[in-house]
Amino acid sequence: MTLQHTEELEQLKRSTPARIGTGRAGSRPTTRELLKLRCDHAAAVDTVYGRVSQALLDELGLFSVESSAGDKEIYLRRPDLGRVLPESSIQNIRLRCIHEPKVQVVISDGLSANAIEHNLRDVYPALLDSLQVHGLTCGTPFFVQNGRVGCMNAIGDILQPEVIVLFIGERPGLLTSHSMSAYLCYKPRSGMTDSNRMVVSNIHQGGTPPVEAGAHLGTLIARMLKQKISGVELLL
Amino acid sequence: MGGEGIDSAKWITSVGIDLGTSTTKCVFSRLKIERRNGLSMLPQFHITDRILSYESPMHQTPFRNETEIDISALEIIISGEYQKAELRPSDVDTGAVIITGETAVKLNADSIVHGLAKQAGAFVVAEAGGDLEAILAGKGSGAEARSILTQGMVVNIDIGGGTANAAFFERGSCKRTLNFHIGGRLIMLDSAGTITKVYPAVQDWLVNEGFHLNKGGVTSMDELRKITHCWSEMLFSTLMNPLDSESCPLIYGERNGALTSSENIAEVWISGGVGRLMEQASPRTMEEAAGYGDIGPLLAEALKKAGSAYPFRLQVPPGAQRATVIGAGVHTTVLSGSTVFVDPHLLPLHNIPVVKLKWPAGDLSRLAGIQPAVEAVFAEGIRKFGKLGKPPFAIVLPAVPYYSYPVIREIAAAIVDVSTASMQPENPEMFLVIICEDDAAKAMGNCIHVLSAGKLRCICLDQISVEHGDYIDIGKPVAEECIPVAIKTLVFSALRELRDNEREQC
Question: Do A67 and A147 contact (CB within 8 A), yes or no?
Answer without folding.
Answer: yes
